[in-house]
Amino acid sequence: MNNSAIIYATLSRIFSDLLDEQTIFDIKNNSAFLELLGESTKLYFENNSIKKIVEDLNVDFTSMFLLNTQPIESFILDAKQEALVGLQNPVMEFYFRNGFEIDMNQTEILAPDHIAIEFGFMQTLAFRGELLTARDFLDRHLIKWVVPYLIGMKAMAGTPFYRDIFSFTIEFLLAERENLEGIS
Q: Would 134 be classed as within a structural domain?
């Protein structure tokens, strides 16, 4: 699996739900990932117990993504802040047009344009090597809403982990788009 697919899979997991003890344990013991995120996150994981990190990150996740705002494209971009369903949702239409089927019954996430589902779609495209479709999706969707959304969310984050993962995600998406610039 290529690096982009791995990163998209990781981001999809991080943004999909509260992080459990096993995931925190895996992050805590992955020094390369912690260094990639930044010194403040690395020190935070080194200096706190798994239990403390789980508690802190769960409070942060709940505050940011459940109580204050949902990481759902149509909520962010649509003034009515309502989830569009079926093919009237531009993201769902994009998935359908590009052969990506989502069984929403297999996930607790109820919106096809949730950030975790969109990252899962990009993981699939990276895995398949569908670079033109990936560039198109970045342009039409992810760059358009995720970058400004995470810039705003960074100020709300109470833990170094989420501040750093937001910065990493922004930098990664912009670098991905730049890497795909010459693809035809």
A: yes
Question: Residue 158 — φ and ψ, nearest 5°?
Answer: -95, -10
Structural domain for 150, as ranges? 3-178
**Residue 183, in any domain of the structure:** no
Token pair for 132:
């033109």
Chain centroid offset of residue 130 CA: 19
Our count of domains for the chain comes to 1
Is the separation of the CB atoms in 176 and 4 below 8 Å? yes
In angstroms, how far is the first alpha carbon of the chain from the final one? Answer: 22
- Considering the entire predicted model, what is its pTM? 0.91
Asked if residue 142 is part of any domain, the answer here is yes
Partners of 155 in the β-ladder: none
| CATH number of the structural domain spanning residue 69 | 1.10.3480.10
115 located within any domain: yes
Cβ contact 23:54 at 8 Å: no
**Which position has the token pair 């929403």?**
104
Distance between CA atoms of 12 and 135, rounded to whole angstroms?
A: 18
pLDDT along the chain (184 residues), means of 10: 90 95 96 96 97 97 87 74 63 86 68 90 94 96 95 95 98 95 80
CB 127 within 8 A of CB 2: yes
Residue listed under structure tokens 């895996």: 26
